[in-house]
Fold this protein.
Amino acid sequence: MPEPAFNRILLKLSGEIFAGNQGYGIDPEVINSLAKKIIQISDKNIQIGIVIGGGNIFRGISTSAKGLDRVAGDYLGMMATIMNSVALQSSLERLDCDTRVMSALSITQLAEPYIRRRGIRHLEKGRIVIFAGGTGNPYFSTDTAAALRAIEINADVIIKGTKVDGIYSADPELDPDATKFEAITFKEVIEKELRVMDLTAITLCKENNLPIIVFDIKSNNGLVDIINSVPTGTTVS
């Protein structure tokens, strides 16, 4: 068997994935499928941190246009990430996988408070750690939260699971001529204004030499292929 390419990863999942075909809310079948894929790489002794978006429940970024205060909207979005995190934890633990949810917002009935050293200790003990509640501050996306947590826990890479199989020159669903990048630099991502992650997250990764791999989370073996160094998706470095 090939040696794993990474020791510690940060897996970023969009909340929209959790909704499945229903478009909103939480689809238990989708979460169970995700949990099985995560356990596949956990069984290879990979230390796994996870950050999940909340777009399937609440999208704070668009609330200002609908008359709701942006700060209030962003806090509602952070709470949505906690709901998704607890749902994934439940699925992972049903499969006998030791999991912790650590939240940047204080909600002790559901999650531990986020403390960097404690999170790293959980990872070292082989527990999957789901970092919920974003950064705990409005105006910062879960992409930025993922970059920040990855840097704090000294992750080797951010692996971003999306609905497409990598980064394209344009939206492949709208532009049939869009071309896929196998590899691209942070500078090119910024110059071409590619929507990989938001600019704050990209800048954090660039300044800390933290690579990002974007792949199709729906693929059966995508995560395992990445861990086994099989070319998959698009690498930003």
User: Anything to note?
Assistant: The chain is about 35% helix and 20% strand. The chain has one domain: 8-236. The first helix runs from residue 15 to 19. The longest strand covers residues 8-13.
